[in-house]
């Protein structure tokens, strides 16, 4: 009990010191207690360590030194007391979540950050105005109260909506934990036992079998045809053999290491634990991914800038007129009320709703094109991206092996696109098909009605590719296999690099040995070759031609398998017992037949998509865990590397030399870079930047998760907007750090989907291009929406300024401003999100976030000083027309406000000498407000048509935006309902007017349209002229 109390005290102290770390005390299966961390605060040093490449020498030292290092035994494992001490001192074998920002702080940021802060200020000011009216003037200002409640509601809605978007994508660590096995088979004290995997410690001897998940990073001690799926580490889905021999200094490439959370797909083996929990390869990836803090999205930065601009304008205008009103003799509280009214009028209350709706509608449209957006603000970021770091397998390629070439009779035959090139009446072809049919262990598991390419198979990718091409070429593969029963087999392994099977020839009563494997290995075991229906001795000339074909196919990114056979002599009779463990049959002097090459082919739509990206000024960089030669071949096929581009691998192939033999002078001729993970480990930040700057066409191959992150960070330091695609766990750090991470929906792991901002539902690179188009279009259209929303600010502010400066009666109320901003203007503002692009937006360069802002001086000049002023004049023309029609001309209105609003004045006379009671004056005020409101709506209709395009004529763009057309009808209908519907119009402080009173506003609306058409004509005609420089926003 004392020990448990001590552990709890340690936990308490740890929690206090780390400000967010959480641990619990647990008991192990042997009865000892240990502290299990659930959440940790990571220091900058720890995160920096996570970013370093995985380095150790446990796989390279001798077995004796290795066993001594971990004080263990390869037969008996650890003793229980050793394991208990290690469990207590080193902690459990588990993954702890990184302590991140508390959710309540995230909620506060969404509620009070960015545009919402501006609305909160507006809401608070309106509540203050309500309080002042009641306290000092004994008036209950229902419009101030309604405005405050509305702004509060808008804030709460947009804040909680943003918070929901953010927090639904934050379960990355949970996805990592789902990969980890719950139990492990461990040998301790020489006894095999099953225990919780989190109790596995350094030096433990563990056993793994097909179907298991490796419980920690281990060094393989024994292997029985052991194969593991390393895709969560390397991103490549092909199973790799594991054995006790060290084959590479790089631990990720050496075959004697297996890693935590990787799956055992074949065979069995034992290994000794060398890393646990967070120190494992996957633990470091998990810690790094969960620790990465993503930068603010571009649109959020734009909104912050927008808020600053609008706030400064509102404060300057408000304070100016507050000062003027004080000098003019108004009381402090009346002046403060004016300040509040002007400040609120400056706030475009409907814009947050418009922004959210526009992004949501775009996200819905993108979903139809197989792009599922997890975070709405990521849409615009994708449109602004300047570089795409794309994974190869499954994104650029189809993620399936397909036979591409048959090699026989000294020639390569294309079976991917040209079946006619195959000579089926040839003995070499028949022999190759026979061996390929018999050697492949794959088989179909679904019905024959399904097309061959879509049929599901058992077996690895290469064998499935051979099975499908044989089914296409010859048909009835299963029937042909039955004609040659298998009697013995040596499975493929990484040491021999070949697979052998022996089959009974029923008619000849002999046995046929068939072999497939790595070309260089099979060639070494062959003495003759079948060529042109003759069996020839393999000489230097024949060997050179075969090797040239192997090299040629390899440079195309194809995997090559060679095939050979041997008719066993008569002494191997039908009763002979073959032994595959200790072969008692010949494995030399075989007859070489031919080769089959396979490729993971590019998706058909990818080359065009890459070409579009190039036209749009976007670089596409391949970042893959695959071999550099394969990566370069695929990159060339899809257009990431130009046909005439030259890399060091091209020079090496051309000169038939190794990379080390290429001279410095030859390297300077390269126009494309192929950089391996080994190269990256040696590069400094400056050297990497030089490569990224010097070469426009780049491939990074054999990269680790940390290196992918390093590449992303290097590009971001160069002020590039980076999009990253990926589907594996190894991609998650780069996906999280990128400006926009894009995961694969079909092949993507849960971890990659959680780390990403967007998911491609069809795993197709070309869908990204659709997303880029939508992202660019939404920014262009958001500019139009902002312009439309801001133009009404001037006619909304003007009445308060003139009311105070000239002392004329009300022309507009705060309630009316709300009705405009979130009523009549809302649908038209949102409808601009449906506007089609004015030109081919994929033929211009990405926007520069530092220069091309959502709101700029040109936009403010056009919307405020030109369109806004025109609208204000048009609306006041209707206002003064209504006043004049009731006997109040301009000269009499000036300075009449105090009498007009005084309920005790019941005999105010007009220009004709008629007396007006307070109730009559109120009715006339409501008519004037209605007239001003309707006039503003008329000019807003013209303004919507103006904002529809930024460069093209309205006649060029057309009126095909049916949502906008409906929005115009809705705006007119809603405005008329509000003014002419009884009870409703009284509530909104309107009164019906005659339509003839609106005639003065028509010339102004026509003027806006004509002026803007001329402005855009000058922009198109003189791209570098005054109009373009000063008014194109």
Automatic annotation (TrEMBL):
Using the record, list the residue span of the signal peptide; answer none if the entry has no such feature: none
Family annotation (PROSITE patterns): ATPASE_E1_E2
Q: Which residues form the Cation-transporting P-type ATPase N-terminal domain?
A: 57-131
In terms of InterPro entries, this protein maps to: ATPase_P-typ_cation-transptr_C, ATPase_P-typ_cation-transptr_N, ATPase_P-typ_cyto_dom_N, ATPase_P-typ_P_site, ATPase_P-typ_TM_dom_sf, ATPase_P-typ_transduc_dom_A_sf, ATPase_P-type_domA, Cation_transp_ATPase_P-type
Where in the cell? Cell membrane
How does the record say this protein sits in the membrane?
A: Multi-pass membrane protein
Q: Where is the composition biased (Low complexity)?
A: 14-23
Query: Could you tell me where the Basic residues compositional bias lies?
Result: 1-13
Tell me the segments the record calls region Disordered: 1-23
Membrane-crossing residue ranges in chain numbering: 110-132, 144-164, 305-330, 855-879, 968-985, 991-1011
- Give UniProt keywords alphabetically: ATP-binding, Cell membrane, Ion transport, Membrane, Metal-binding, Nucleotide-binding, Phosphoprotein, Potassium, Potassium transport, Sodium, Sodium transport, Sodium/potassium transport, Translocase, Transmembrane, Transmembrane helix, Transport
Q: How does it assemble?
A: The sodium/potassium-transporting ATPase is composed of a catalytic alpha subunit, an auxiliary non-catalytic beta subunit and an additional regulatory subunit.
Q: What does this protein do?
A: This is the catalytic component of the active enzyme, which catalyzes the hydrolysis of ATP coupled with the exchange of sodium and potassium ions across the plasma membrane. This action creates the electrochemical gradient of sodium and potassium ions, providing the energy for active transport of various nutrients.
State the similarity comment. Belongs to the cation transport ATPase (P-type) (TC 3.A.3) family. Type IIC subfamily.
Per its record, how is this protein called by name? Sodium/potassium-transporting ATPase subunit alpha
Native organism is Molorchus minor
């Amino acid at each position: 009990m004392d020990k448990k109390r001590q552990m709890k005290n340690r936990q308490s102290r740890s929690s206090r010191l780390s400000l967010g770390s959480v641990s619990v005390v647990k008991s192990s299966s042997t009865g000892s207690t240990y502290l299990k961390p659930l959440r940790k605060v990571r220091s900058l040093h720890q995160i920096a360590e996570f970013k370093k490449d995985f380095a150790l020498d446990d796989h390279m030292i001798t077995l004796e030194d290795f066993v001594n290092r971990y004080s263990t035994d390869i037969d008996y494992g650890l003793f229980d007391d050793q394991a208990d001490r290690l469990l207590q001192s080193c902690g459990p074998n588990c993954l702890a979540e990184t302590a991140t920002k508390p959710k309540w702080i995230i909620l506060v940021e969404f509620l009070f950050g960015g545009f919402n802060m501006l609305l909160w200020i507006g809401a608070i000011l309106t509540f203050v105005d309500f309080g002042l009216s009641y306290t000092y003037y004994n008036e209950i200002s229902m419009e101030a109260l309604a405005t405050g409640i509305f702004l509060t509601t808008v804030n709460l809605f947009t804040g909680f909506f943003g918070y929901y978007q953010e927090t639904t994508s934050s379960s990355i660590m949970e996805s990592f934990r789902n990969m980890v096995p719950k139990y492990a088979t461990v040998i301790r004290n020489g006894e095999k036992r099953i225990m919780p995997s989190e109790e596995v410690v350094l030096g433990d001897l563990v056993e793994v079998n097909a179907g298991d998940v490796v419980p920690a990073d281990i060094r393989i001690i024994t292997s029985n045809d052991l194969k593991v799926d390393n895709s969560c580490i390397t991103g490549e889905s092909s199973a790799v053999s594991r054995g006790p021999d060290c084959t590479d200094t790089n631990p990720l490439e050496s075959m004697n290491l297996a890693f935590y959370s990787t799956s055992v797909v074949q065979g069995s083996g034992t290994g000794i634990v060398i890393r646990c929990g967070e120190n494992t390869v996957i633990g470091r990836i998990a810690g790094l991914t969960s620790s990465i803090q993503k930068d603010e999205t571009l649109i959020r930065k734009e909104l912050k800038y927008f808020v600053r601009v609008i706030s400064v304008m509102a404060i300057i205008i408000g304070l100016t007129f507050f000062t003027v009103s004080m000098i003019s003799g108004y009381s402090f509280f009346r002046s403060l009320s004016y300040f509040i009214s002007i400040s609120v009028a400056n706030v475009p209350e409907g814009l947050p709703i418009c922004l959210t709706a526009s992004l949501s509608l775009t996200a819905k449209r993108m979903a139809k094109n197989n792009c599922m957006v997890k975070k709405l603000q990521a849409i615009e970021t994708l449109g602004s991206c300047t570089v795409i770091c794309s994974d190869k397998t499954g994104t650029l390629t189809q993620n399936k092996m397909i036979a591409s070439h048959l090699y026989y009779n000294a020639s390569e035959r294309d079976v991917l696109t040209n079946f006619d090139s195959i000579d089926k009446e040839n003995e070499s072809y028949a022999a190759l098909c026979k061996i390929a049919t018999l050697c492949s262990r794959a088989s179909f598991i679904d019905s024959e009605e399904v097309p061959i390419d879509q049929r599901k198979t058992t077996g690895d990718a290469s064998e499935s590719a051979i099975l499908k091409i044989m089914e296409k070429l010859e048909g009835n593969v299963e029937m042909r296999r039955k004609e040659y029963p298998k009697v013995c087999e040596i499975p493929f392994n990484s040491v021999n690099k070949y697979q052998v099977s022996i089959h009974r020839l029923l008619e000849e009563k002999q046995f046929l040995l068939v072999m497939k494997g790595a070309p260089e290995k099979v060639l070494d075991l062959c003495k003759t070759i079948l060529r042109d229906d003759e069996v020839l001795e393999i000489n230097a000339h024949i060997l050179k031609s075969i090797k040239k074909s192997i090299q040629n196919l390899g440079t195309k990114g194809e995997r090559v398998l060679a095939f050979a056979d041997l008719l066993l002599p008569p002494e191997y009779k039908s009763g002979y017992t073959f032994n595959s463990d200790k072969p008692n049959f010949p494995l030399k002097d075989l007859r070489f037949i031919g080769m089959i090459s396979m490729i993971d082919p590019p998706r058909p739509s990818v080359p065009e998509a890459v070409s579009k990206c190039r036209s749009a000024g976007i670089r596409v960089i391949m970042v893959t865990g695959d071999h550099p030669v394969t990566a370069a071949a695929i990159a060339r096929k899809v257009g990431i590397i130009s046909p005439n581009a030259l890399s060091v691998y091209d020079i090496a192939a051309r000169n038939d030399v190794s990379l080390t033999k290429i001279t410095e002078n030859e390297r300077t001729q390269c126009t494309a870079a192929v950089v391996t993970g080994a190269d990256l480990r040696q590069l400094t930040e400056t050297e990497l930047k030089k490569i990224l700057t010097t070469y426009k066409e780049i491939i990074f191959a054999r990269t680790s998760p940390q290196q992918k992150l390093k590449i992303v960070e290097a590009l971001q330091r160069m002020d590039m907007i980076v999009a990253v695609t990926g589907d594996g766990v190894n991609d998650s750090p780069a996906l999280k750090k990128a400006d926009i991470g894009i995961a694969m929906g079909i092949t993507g792991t849960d971890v990659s989907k959680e780390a990403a901002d967007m998911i491609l539902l069809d795993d197709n690179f070309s869908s990204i291009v659709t997303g880029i188009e939508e992202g660019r279009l939404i920014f262009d259209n958001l500019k139009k929406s902002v312009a439309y929303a801001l133009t009404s600010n001037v006619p909304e502010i003007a009445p308060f300024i003139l009311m105070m400066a000239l002392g004329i009666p009300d022309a507009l109320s705060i309630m009316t401003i709300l009705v405009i901003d979130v009523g009549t203007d809302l649908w038209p503002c949102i409808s601009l999100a449906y506007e089609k692009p004015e030109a081919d937006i994929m033929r211009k360069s990405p926007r520069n976030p530092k220069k091309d802002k959502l709101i700029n001086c040109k936009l403010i000049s056009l919307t405020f000083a030109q369109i806004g002023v025109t609208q204000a004049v048009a609306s006041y023309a209707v206002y003064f027309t209504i006043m004049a029609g009731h006997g109040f001309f301009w000269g009499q209105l000036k300075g009449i406000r105090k009498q007009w609003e005084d309920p005790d004045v019941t005999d105010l006379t007009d220009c004709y000498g008629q007396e007006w009671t307070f109730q009559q004056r109120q009715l006339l005020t409501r008519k004037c407000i209605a007239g001003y409101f309707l006039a503003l709506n008329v000019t807003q209709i013209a303004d919507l048509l103006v904002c529809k395009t930024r460069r093209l004529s309205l006649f060029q763009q057309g009126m095909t935006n049916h949502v906008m057309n409906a929005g115009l009808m809705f705006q007119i209908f809603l405005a008329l309902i509000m003014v002419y519907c009884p009870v409703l119009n009284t509530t909104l402080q309107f009164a019906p007017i005659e339509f003839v009173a609106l005639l003065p506003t028509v010339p102004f609306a026509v003027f806006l349209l004509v002026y803007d058409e001329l402005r855009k004509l000058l922009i198109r005609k003189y791209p570098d002229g005054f109009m373009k420089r000063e008014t194109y926003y």
